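>> received
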Amino acid sequence: MKPTQLAILFAVTMTTACADPQIPSPTEPVARSGRLEATVAAPVAERRDYSISYHGLTLDDPYHWLRDPDYPKLDDEDVVAYLEAENDYFDEVMKPHQALVESLFEELKARQAPDLESVPWREGEYFYQWRYPGVSEYRVWTRTPVDGGNEEIILDEPALAEGHEYFVLGGMDVSRDGRYMAWSVDTDGSERYELRITDLDTGALVGESIRNVSGDTAWSADGSTLLYTVLGETWRPFQVRAHRLGSSLSEDRVVFEEEDVDMWVTLGETRSGDFILIDVGGHQTTETWFLPAGNVLAEPVLIAERIPEIYYEVTHARDRFYIRIDDLHKNFRVVTAPTRTPGRDHWQELIAGSDEDYIRGIDAFADFLVIQQRTGGIDQIRILDFDGRAHDVAFPKTAHTVGLGYNEIFDTDFVRLNYESMVTPDTVFDYFVDTRELVTRKVQQIPTGYDATRYETLRLMAPARDGEQVPVTVVYRRDYPKDNSRPLYITGYGTYGDSYDPGFSTSRLSLLDRGFAVAIAHIRGGDELGRRWYLDSRGDKRPNTFNDFIDATRFLVEEGFGAPGRIAASGGSAGGTVMGAVLNQAPELWGAMAAHVPFVDVVHSMLDDEQPLTVLEWPEWGNPAESKTAFETQLAYSPYDQIEAKDYPPIFLTGGVNDPRVAYWEPAKFAARLRHTKTDTNVLLLKTNMGSGHFGKTGRLAAYQDVAEEYAFVLLAMDIPES
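>> returned
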C-alpha cells in the first residue's frame, strides 16, 4: 500500500461537526464484543467535504468519495485501499477464530447430500435431470430419451466454472425439437450474461457468443431462431433481438424495444408452446406483448396497454389467454381473453378478486388451470378445470410453502409441486389431478441425520403499534424453555411484494442445536397477507416495515423468546435496509447484527440517476429529487443518514464490488460513518468481496463459507457456546 493511501485511510481530520476520535495504539485492544477482540486499530476513512441540497435541506456526505467516479469500474486507489484495509481488519479480528469458522463450514457442508440430483422431468422426447457429482460445487445437466437409450451430458457446469472465482448459470433453454440448447453464464457477478448455443447432436458450439444479455431466451417453434434480451448501460433489459442460426450477430433483428427508462423487458414462452410473451414492467405497472411461436419475426401484438399502478401477467390454453390482474382488486382477479382479440373490451371474468384469497399466480395446462394463492398467509394450490369445477390440494402441515416445480409438459394428468415447512425438508410431490393423489417423488436427504420430532414451529401474530397483526413464524427445539434465557435469531425482508416463506433450512440447524429459536418476521412490504400487505410499505409508508420488525421482535420477547441484547438479527439487500433502520431505532434490542449487501444509503442512491436501477426503483421507494415528501420520508429512516452518537451492538456488514443491485459503497459508507460516530467499543466488521456481486460466493458448498462466517460472528459476539 502506498504511503499516501495510508494517510488517507488513517487520517484524523476536523469537520464542521466534530473531530474524528483519536486512534488508539495498534498494540492495544480497540474493540471487544463477547469473545471477539481486535488487537489492531480499525480503519478510519477520511472525511471529505461534500454536501447536497434539496427542498431547502442540506445533507453532509463526508464519505461520498467512496463512490468511484468511474463506476462500474473500480480503479480509484483511495477507494481500493480503504476496502482492502477493511478486509484486512476483518481477517485480523476473525483470525483467532478460524477453527470455529471452519468447524461451522464443515458442519454446514456435511448436511449436503453428495451426488445430489433432481427428479427427472420431461420436455419433448427427453427426460432431463441435473446432479452434483460427488461433492462438486456445480451441476451437470443430462438427458435421456423417453423411449430408452443412453444418458448424455448436455451441460457441464464444473468444466465451465473451472478457473473462475465466480460462476453462475443464467439460464438453459432447449429448442422444441431437442436439437439446440441456449445457455448463459456470468463469471464476475455483474449479472451481465454471455449467451452461447450448443448443437446437442454434435456437442459443438454454434456461432458467436452473445454478450451483455439478461439470460432470458425463447426459441421459435422450428428451432431456427433464438430470441434474447439485451441489457442497456444501466443494467436495464430493454430490447429483444432475434438471432437466426447460421447468421452473423450483426444481422440480428430488433423485435422489440422499450424506451421508458423505468420499465424492464423480460421474455418467455407459454407452456402451450403457441406463443412467445414479451413482458414489460416495473414494480407495479406491466403490459404484455405476444408473438406466434411459428413466426417470431412478426409484429408483436399488445394484449392490454399499460396503466400506471396496474399489474397483470398472462398464460395461455386452448384459444384463450388467462390474465391475472389487480385492476379491480389488489388481491388480483382472473380474466380470460380470446387470442384473436385480446384487448380489454373482450375480457370475461373467471375468478373475482377476494379479500380472503390472494391470487399469487395462474398456470395453464391442457385440461386445467393451477391457481397459486394464499389464504390467511398460508400457501394453497387450487385446481380449476375448464368446466368450472375447483378443488384445493390438501397438504400435511399448516405453516408451509408450496409452489410449482418443473412442469414442462402441457398435456399432463399431474402437476409437480415443491413443498417444505420450517421443520419439513424440501419435498417433491406429483399431484394427480383426477385421483387427487399426492405422490412423494423425493425428500431432501440430510447425511448427518435429521429428526423432525425434535423441533417445533409456531405461527404467531404480533401486534404492531398501529393495530396491524404481523405474522411471525418461529422454529425451535422442543427443549427450548421460552423463559427469555435462550437466544433468538430473527430475520425478515419486507420489500417489492416478495414474501419471506417459512421454508426449511439445513443451515438453520446449526443455530437451533446451539439453543437458538429462529424467527421470520413477515413484515409489511412482502405479500404474505395479500397485495395490501405490500402496498402498505411502498413509498411514504415504508416506515411500517421497520416498525413491524421491531414490534414483532419485542412481542417475541414477551412470549419468552430471547431478551434484549440476546437477539441476533440478519437481513440482506432490501432486508439490509431493515437491519440498518432497526439498528438505529432500537440498538438496545440486538446482541449482534448482520447486514449483507445492505441498501443503507437510501437518499443518496435514490438521487443518483446514473446508478443502475435508481430510476426503476422510484415507484417503490419514491423520487426524492421531485418529491419533498419522499425526500423527508427517506431521510427519516435512511440508515446511513440516521447514524447517531450512541452505543450500537456488534455489527457485521458485507458487500460485493461487482454488485449491480446494491453498490459496494453503500455498506462501505455505512461502516465508515458508524466508526466515526458510535460511542461504544463493540466490534464492527466490513467484508467486501472483491470478485463477486450481489449474491456472494457461488458454488453449492462454497456459499456456506459466508454462512459460517456470519454464524461464527453471532456466536462469538453474543458469547454463545460453540457446541
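>> The longest strand covers residues 210-219.
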